[in-house]
């Protein structure tokens, strides 16, 4: 996968892309990152990338020319048409399902804006996806794009080392993940559930399933709205309600 980032603050990405899983993914050849200062594409003599909004109002708006030229250049360089992702609080709420969609692409371009927003022609004619990581506003799209890139890259084949590592993650299955324990079995009087020490994998799977349902029930019951519950799941949830 190739990931390009268009930003006015390219130095923000060096630490993130140069550490942990994101660095290892690049070392393995699973992904390449290129961060571009789109101010370099401005044709204005002072490299301006923003201007006052027509009709008046506070703040400045990103002009279309630098981003159009930058994206057209990056698109023409590749063999496949990229997904162009605009980080924006007005976009659709980002989910694990969206991360899985992005992970299937060969080329992603992330657009990180600042100021009061974008010229609407950028939205209408350049981008394929508008994404928001939550119902709040950041000073720019850089941190949001880092979150999305991290969630996508970890899904690429061989990045985590174990092909099933991410399959039981919260939201990957549609539910929150069950509790996890490791050694020692007894830590300061706090013990690991006996079923996990039993070696009975059928019972362990059943316990994990029930714990996943229970955690989702208490923390994110809205996830059940779109999740296909089995009759056994429904019976367990009815029991939880009675308790």
UniProtKB/TrEMBL annotation:
GO MF annotations in UniProt: tRNA (guanine(37)-N1)-methyltransferase activity
EC number(s) reported in the record: 2.1.1.228
A GO cellular component entry from the record: cytosol
GO BP, one annotated term: tRNA N1-guanine methylation
Reactions listed under catalytic activity: guanosine(37) in tRNA + S-adenosyl-L-methionine = N(1)-methylguanosine(37) in tRNA + S-adenosyl-L-homocysteine + H(+)
Organism superkingdom: Bacteria
Subcellular location: Cytoplasm
Group of enzyme by EC: transferase
Family annotation (Gene3D superfamilies): 3.40.1280.10, tRNA(m1g37)methyltransferase, domain 2
Alphabetized UniProt keyword annotations: Cytoplasm, Methyltransferase, S-adenosyl-L-methionine, Transferase, tRNA processing
Binding site for S-adenosyl-L-methionine: 113, 133-138
Domain annotation tRNA methyltransferase TRMD/TRM10-type: ranges: 1-225
Pfam families named among the record's database cross-references: tRNA_m1G_MT
Family listed: Belongs to the RNA methyltransferase TrmD family.
NCBIfam families associated with the record: PRK00026.1, trmD
Function, in words: Specifically methylates guanosine-37 in various tRNAs.
Oligomer and partners: Homodimer.
Name used for this protein in its record: tRNA (guanine-N(1)-)-methyltransferase
Native source species: Bacillus solimangrovi
Gene it is expressed from: trmD
